[in-house]
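Hello forum,

I keep getting stuck at the same step: I have a sequence, I want structure tokens, and every attempt I make locally crashes halfway through. Rather than fight my setup again tonight, could one of you with a working pipeline run this one for me? It's a single chain of 484 residues.
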Amino acid sequence: MAMAADTPEEPGRVAVAARPPELLQRAHLIGIGGAGMSGIGRILLARGAEVSGSDAKESRAFLTLRAQGAQIAVGQAAENLDLAGGDPTAVIVSTAIRDDNPELAAARARGIPVLHRAEALAALMEGHRVACIAGTHGKTSTTSMLTVALQHCRLDPSFAIGGDLNESGANAHHGEGGVFVAEADESDGSFLSYAPDVAVVTNVEPDHLDHHGTVDAYIAVFTEFLGRITPGGALVVCADDAAAAELACRAEAAGVRVLRYGRSATGEHDARVVAYEPADEGGTVRLALGGEELEVRVTVPGEHMAFNAVAALLAGLELGAPVDGMLAGLAVFGGVRRRFEFKGRAADVRVYDDYAHHPTEVDAQLRAVRHAAGTGRVVVVFQPHLYSRTEAFASEFAEALGLADEVILLDVYGAREEPKPGVSGELVAERITGAAVHYEPAFDRATALAADLVKPGDLLVTMGAGDVTQLGPEILAELDRRGV
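Reply #2:
Ran it on my machine without issues. Output:
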């Protein structure tokens, strides 16, 4: 593990040719506005590829992609395959694209190669040193922290993240540093397309059972992921998470070098967390690493975020970044869009937005919110995501939401799923204890309800993976309108 004392003037970098793989020289992306797909489009355009695509509706991702030269259609039709002036060399899809999609069906009929998003990203990783960050929770934040810290070390990594960095406003970038950092999504098993030199597993907890079917199958896909680590590569893993710690043992048995972090990490090359000290904004981890004691400072609240920073530190050191540069970069990390993102203040009420959509994430984030709220109350507007997840974890969601003072419970955001009889937001609402609960199935009434409930000094957070993110600005506007 490299632990140079100072950031060099020009860290050693391996230039990577800005050329797309031959198969992706003229790529058509179905659902190009999505977080993962738009990132691939950005990188392809930066490498000189012709890019076309389509999506059901306009999004802010369209503006950047069009400005860079992408041909994009709103709505999906077979003729969209001709946007770039001829057959694409490949059509790229995500798991969300159904077989009856007219563009996908037309591509297959014409014999155009069809790649999953992860397969396309794997092709873009070729020739780089690759770091992939996986785990049930914390993937986006950890990937973002690692990316920002490497940028601070002037290593100019390429990256693909499931959220927009606050520093750059981007979710992807083609860099010239010879390093590629990517968020590795286990939800559909597609991260098995990657071959990382450094893999991070933050934690493993049952989720996405709509795809994997059983808890055992979900855990098994992480075991397969370990087998994708390149010879001589390393696994960075949280020793405090029981399932992740078990994965670490399996990896070691298979000959993979393992670096653990957490309070339970005790090995010679591990990062042992000695203490965590919260601050008004963020916190500090005291860390024993390589015979030294280090301080890792973060400006985002919550112990879980500080632990994510430790994972990013270990991954960065494995990639050859200097320790001082990594620590400095982590200290200035400004967060990720929709990860406890500050939306504004009105009537002495602070409003944030957060992507938490699993009970463990909700619990961790509300504990951090409680500290950030100080003497004020915590009001959460929560939107369950997926009928299958709501049904499986209704009691766990209720327990986590009970950490707030006031809970507005919206109905389920179904996303890719059809409604399920008997499964609604009320399933969670009726189980909550310890907080005042307001079940509001009518989305358009939530803004006024939130404005009615909040008091000066409160902290309100909109939470969930669906369109609940729209409510923060609306609540601020309503508070301003009322002149409270």
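The domain at 22-116 is CATH 3.40.50.720 (Rossmann fold). If your local run keeps crashing, start a new thread with the error log.
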